[in-house]
Amino acid sequence: MARLMLFLTRTRGVKRLHWTDWFSYSYLFLGVLLMFGPVVWMVMSSFKTETQLMEFPPNFLPYGQIERKIEGFENPLPLFLVKKGDYQGKILAQSRRVGILSHLVDPDDPDTLIKINVRDREPVKEFSLSLDNYSELFERFKFTTYLWNSIFITVVATLITLLTCSMAAFALSKYKFKGKLPALALIVGALMVPHTVTLVPLFLITKSLGLFNSLWGVILPAVASPTGVFLLRQYMLTIPDEILDAARMDKASEWKIYWRIILPLSMPALAVLCILSVMWRWNDFLWPLIVLFDSDKFTLQLALNSFQGQHDTQWSNLLAMTVLVLIPIATVFSFLQKYITTGTASSGIK
Amino acid sequence: MAELILKDITKDYGDGDVIKGINLRIPQGEFCVFVGPSGCGKSTLLRMISGLEDVTSGAISLDGKDITKVHAADRGMAMVFQSYALYPHMRVRENLSFALENINTPKDEIIQRVGAAAKMLQIEGILDRKPTTLSGGQRQRVAIGRSVVREPKVFLFDEPLSNLDAELRVQMRDEITRLHKRIGNTMIYVTHDQIEAMTMADRIVVLHDGVIEQSGSPLELYDRPCNIFVAGFIGAPRMNFIEMKVTDVKGDHIHLEHTLFQLRIPAGKHHVSIGQEVTLGVRANHLEISETDNADVIGVIERVENLGAESHVYARLASGEGLTVYKQGYFEAGDKDKIGVKIVHNKLHLFDTDSGGSIFVA
Amino acid sequence: MSTMSKTKVFFLFSAVMRLVEFPFRLFLKCFGMRNVAWFFLAPNLIFFGIFSLLPVILNIAYSLTGGSEILLNDRTYIGADNFSDLLQCEDYMDPNSCKEDLFWRSLSNTTIFVFLQVGMMVGFALITALILNRKIVARGFFRSVFFFPVMLSPVVVALIWKWILQRNGLLNAGIEYFGYEKILWLLERNWAFFWSVFVSVWMHMGFYALIILAGLQAIPKDVYEAARMDAARPFVIFRRITLPLLMPTMTVVMLLALIKGVQTFDEVYALTGGGPGTTTTFIIQYIYETGFAGSPRLLGLAAAVSLLLACALIILTTIQFIVKKRSANG
């Protein structure tokens, strides 16, 4: 313990902890609580049954009442601990409840009926993860459809984005040609006018292209991401032109230079754009909300949002679904967090 | 025969010519070095020969065929770049074979040619490594190997040694020279380092401001520079220049006058006239340190570089010109000491001050 | 990924890429080597033209039309009526006196929201970055802790907090434990507004902290060492060295936050739906509801508001570029 303290307080070199260090660590631990707490709370809640969710005050861990199959009864019966009277300290199963009277049976002696005031017994609980919320998603809701829609949009859009943006970035970073400056200016201009302010005409164009209520209507409008072009171009500018010249001397066509030399060498920037694009598409909300109105075409985000209205916020399934939506991004992040944070810090794009 | 001929080559990037009409004939098997200060157009000229840069006007022909409009990869040339330009994401083996794959060479032949090149350059042990894991010298070898496998008619080198440290540079210089002796192909080598030029070249082409100042063998350029620029560029330490005036041309002697001293030099053939402003050029090793009494000129020592085997003495004349004097062995002197300098009369150059052209070589 | 599947992926990739060689050759034959760049630009430019450039032009056209038809041809030209409707107010301080009262209300909501959100966010981001820039244990971990909500979907974030803020949620359990009455956090005006600011800060703060942190780390170490040699106390170093050198980054962060803040929609819409009433209805939601969710669809009006918003954004972004450029040069 002393060693641990020594380790933890070794931060400012020779000196012991300064008050600023105490402040820093308090802030950080409070931060962990505030940032992680809500997510953990939700994940925990998603494993609770409908009744547990109604409980107030809520428990942190999902505790379920134990039920036992008793001879002579069709359904499993909930177990109760008797707090008062002759049977004090005994665990009995409740067969039914009549008003304030609870009809209990001893699991070892199912024929004798014991009647007790409901206030004199309390449920026996144990830690149990209820997966019902999750399985119901697949049984009762079109979860797989939403999932497929989301995956389809994310994967296809990301692939097209990477291809078109890297090609454009290659042209804008490695060639001199007439019209390069206007093209660059257009892209910088587009950075200023996000899609949120051109919703109306975008809606019209999507509709007249017949992409309304289609997944392609969500995919195509944003594949020419100016952010992506900009990001890749800045990176490609750092690739020495001599390598391209060498490849030209080696009789590689310009197309081959693009895919054999430029693409592999731009991997770090492509990876950043790939992660960004996956994140944008997976989390996209406003545009799908406008384009997709048929629930068969809903993405997970839309489904999540519509759940809370349609079913008067049916929390049990909603929580499970939220967790499932969160998992892919959380996984990507936990594996690549160092990469993502440094990438974001250097590009200044989210 | 792979003879390369450049005819009236110019290059204009849109704001005036950078290459102003180059005419040059490089015979088969020659090791030709383009040398000049940075910005003289030597790299541009090389890139035009390679085909990576368009020619604004003029023609390039190889083997009697006009290749001015031929694509870089189809000219039968290979290039070694200043930064080596190895493909960082490919192994050494793939770096070597990339060009061969692009011309659809059969697999066995690729293996055989890569193997041969690797053996010749002693890089067999690193064929499966990525360029980033290699040392400077190894990268240099791979870069050369990449051009060797293509079996080009002409090798082009663009300042290939400038990224190496001094010791390695000497070593690679030697290796490239030996490579040339061994395969005997035409090689064109660009550098700003005149020592590289002197040691490696069959022929040096001195470029300055987009024109050829002089072309010839290293010693020709050293002994008979055709103008002040070449005289100053070739040879280290730099040639000393003193502006003088011709006072008299009598029989077989030329009389020169300077505010501090006079000089009477024996002249054979010359194009000197009385009253002409001339620049006297004399190399540091053709100056001798002497007693101040019988010296041609007296200067004040500014600094001495004792290199061990030799010493370079930097002196300044009262009229402002600097003089560098070469001396074998050590030279001990304090700052501000006076020093007498004697000029070896049969190793002199005279240049016309206005045009810079050589008018007399002793 | 195993080497086996890696080579397979590469094989597939190169096979696809080799196929493009043919159209590429055809392109060169038709347009020549001089125009090779356009081959690479074309796909992006086509999408860009259809989905980014054209909308900007059409948006201007739409903003000058009225009616509820969708196609531009069917719509009636009404000149600047949409704009004059938007600006028609008896008292600009009182949204109720305006013809488009909802627009003015969402505008004032957005203004207050952005003011609070940017202030809180940049403040916390600065503190966080300063702390993360110290010599602390497990810096990478803490950095990720603050950053990860940036990656989450706005809807997920909204639901996470909605679950905590609901009637029988964790927060109410907490305050009841301390003997207070339950509060309907998202149904009381001020609380709902507070939570939409809070949740939005919670979600985005890590991003700005990261950028400020990068700015802090870009300050050369020797400047600090020089300051320490000059016997400056830590607070003086912070005030006289860190802050001035960080100023360009802070300005960029602030403008970036402002630009994003003005466009806030997703997380707040999913959290409060704009309510209670119109308390948390912001400008993008106004556009969405006027143009798409409402009936009849007032596309012209929505386009007009979009145009005004775009102008504001362009001004903000231009300032940001200028600041960025100046700090890069200076």
User: Helicity of chain A, in percent?
Assistant: 55-70%
Could you say what the CATH architecture of the largest domain in chain A is?
Orthogonal Bundle
CATH topology name of the largest domain in chain C, in short, is MetI-like fold
Number of domains of chain C: 2
Helix content estimate of chain C? over 70%
CATH superfamily assignment of the largest domain in chain A?
A: MetI-like
- Rg of chain A over CA atoms, rounded to whole Å, is 30 Å
Tally of individual helices of chain A: 15
DSSP helical segment count of chain C: 13
Chain pair with largest interface? A-C, 106 and 105 residues
Question: Would you tell me the overall average pLDDT of chain A?
Answer: 84
CATH superfamily of the largest domain in chain C: MetI-like
Structural classification of chain A: alpha+beta
The name of the CATH topology of the largest domain in chain A is MetI-like fold
Cα-atom radius of gyration of chain C? 26 Å
State the domain count of chain A.
2
Mass-distribution shape of chain C: globular
* Unreliable runs of chain A: none
Give the overall shape of chain A.
Answer: elongated
**What's the quaternary structure here?**
heterotrimer
- Which whole number gives the mean pLDDT of chain C? 88
